[in-house]
Amino acid sequence: QVQLVESGGGLVQAGGSLTLSCAASGRAFSLYAMGWFRQGPGKEREFVAGIRWRDGSTYYADSMKGRFTISRDNAKSTVYLQMNSLKPEDTAVYYCTLDTSGSIYSIRTVQEYDYWGQGTQVTVSS
């Protein structure tokens, strides 16, 4: 079993920054990729960023390019999401995800991932 523990959510003013962390723990699991999704009020869960563990390749939703940075600590099985220039529309519950094997699905899709964190609220005020 894999557990994902998120931290770093909170309230921030527009234009500010926030960093989310997610640590994975458990026994005997492979780590193919980790990522972040978010779900804002009245919206579907959407891809934010992902990172392939093997080589650190990163992937971003178009709206996050240049503002958000995903990174990882291999030794700690931890992924980070550095969010800069935050906008009110970034307000959402952010979910950490983990993919153990890879699949035919894209790293950008919900279906790709095997485990999910509980989510952490990010609120950006105007």
Task: Describe the protein in words.
The chain has no helices and eleven strands. With 126 residues, it is mainly β. Strands 2, 4, 5, 6, 9, 10 and 11 form a seven-stranded mixed beta sheet that branches. Strands 1-3-8-7 form a four-stranded antiparallel beta sheet, with no helix packed on it. Strand 5 and strand 6 form a beta hairpin. The termini are far apart. The model has no long low-confidence stretch (mean pLDDT 94).
Q: Give the helix level as a range of percent.
A: under 10%
How would you spell out the order of helices and strands? EEEEEEEEEEE
**Total of helices:** 0
Distance between the termini: 40 Å
Strand residue content: over 45%
Largest sheet: 7 strands, mixed
Derived structural class: mainly beta
Shape: globular
**Total number of strands:** 11
Q: Specify Rg, calculated over alpha carbons.
A: 14 Å
Mean pLDDT: 94
Unreliable spans are none
In short:
The chain is an all-beta fold. The protein has strands spanning 2-7, 10-13, 18-26, 33-39, 46-52, 58-60, 68-73, 78-83, 92-99, 115-116, 120-125.
